[in-house]
Structures are given as C-alpha cells and as structure tokens.
Amino acid sequence: MTDARTALTEAAARFAFSPTARLDAELLLAHALGIERNALLLDQTRAVPDGFWTLVERRAAQEPVAYITGTRGFWTLDLMVGPGALVPRVDSETLIAAALAHFEDRPPATLLDLGTGPGTLLLALLDEWRGTKGLGVDRSDDALRYAVANASSCGLSDRARFVRGDWAAALTGPFDCIVTNPPYIGTDEPLSAEVRDYEPGAALFAGPDGLDDYRLLAPELRRLLAPGGAAVVEIGHEQAQAVTPLLEAQGFAVTLHRDLGGRPRALLAH
Predict the structure, then answer these.
(1) Which end of the chain is more exposed for a tag (fewer CB within 10 A), N or C?
(2) What pTM value is reported for the model?
(3) DSSP letter at 49?
C-alpha cells in the first residue's frame, strides 16, 4: 500500500496548474485521513486510504480544495464553504487588519458586511470585537446558509444576524463599521478554471470594467455610515486609482492598505 510521502508526491504532480500543488495534496490527504495537516507532516509513513484518490481526481479537475474538504481557514477561524459561496482568500485578511488598526482603541458597536458570502469578514471581526453586533447581507441563499452555519460553529450566533438582500437596499443604519468585498472582475477578464467553473459568477463579475458595484456602493456607504465610522472596501490590485475617486466624491478621506504581497488590496474610507 502506498505511504503518505509517496502519495503526496504523486498527487502534487497531478496539480501542476496550482501554485500550491504540494499544499493542496497535503490538505486533501489530511482530510481523507481525518487528521490535521500538522499531524500528517509529522508522520508521512501512514497508509493512504483509497478515498484519497477520489479527492485527487476532483482536484485534478480544478475543483477548489475548499469545496472538496468543505472548509477554509480565514484569519483565526475555520469556515465551512461549498458551491454557491465565494471561497475566503488570504488577501481579504487585509481588510481585517485595516479595520482592527483603525478601531484599535474604540471597537465599533455595530458592524455591517455587504456581500457577506459565508460570513467571512463579519465573523472574523466579531471574533476580535467581543462587544460588537453585526449584520451580514447577501443575495445568495446558498451563501447565507453557510454564513448561518459558520456563525453557529464559531459561537457567534448571538451577535451575528444575516439577511437576504441586494446590497444596501432596505437598510437604514447607521453602522459604525462597514466592510465589503464586492465583485470586481471585468466580465471579459481571464480567470483560472477553478474560479471560473466553480465559484459563483455573481460574486466575481461587476460589468465590463469591474467597477459597477463600487459605483453603486459608494453613495450607500456614505448613507449608512455613522458619524466617526469607517468603511473598508476590498479592491482588485489595479483598481485603487479608479475606486478612490468614487469614495472621495462622497466626502470620504481614503487610505490605501496593501496585502502581504505588497499589492493594493483595501481602501479605508472615513
């Protein structure tokens, strides 16, 4: 029977399309074995269950690892995720860091996450701000089911509420902090198969230039934000110069935050 070390090498070779091929293989094998990845790394002599190769076939078809395992780590949380919900990405942790830095001495009482998906930004911040109450809005029933389940599994159901809605429609506010990771990909931009073929297009695409939702959101952020509050908006790494004026036109002062790769990733408006 194949041992873990050999299986990982064989699986990673199948994932040449992925920049994290070895990590992908490790996560899938740990999932198949029902153990943490760290435990696998400490002992790679384990026998490999037959079910692992089924997972390898799914990943070889470029299905996202998070959809296969059903979970994705984000900030300090492990979130459930699956078809119909955008997979949390490490770049979005830039928004968490920006919000925490801005509200360092005065955590907000109220938090709004527009386009919450599986609750990614909302739950990460509520876990940090223990006195804050939050509302997550999304138009996807599938995403909201994951958000509600994640709030429960993270012990945050008492402070997190979710509603189905089209951005800020029917919301009155005000909110002390607003976070949002809107769609920002142009409809003709190329994407990898694992994103294009599996993740929900409604959470990815925003018109020909990728800016449609920013144009809609900018005035809504001004309307909903409490005096002295701040909004943190995720952007594509080439969109800072296009989105900043939309926020400035609403009277916001705007600060750029970069992700761990040094790329523009979030705008803080206050």
Answers:
(1) N
(2) 0.94
(3) P
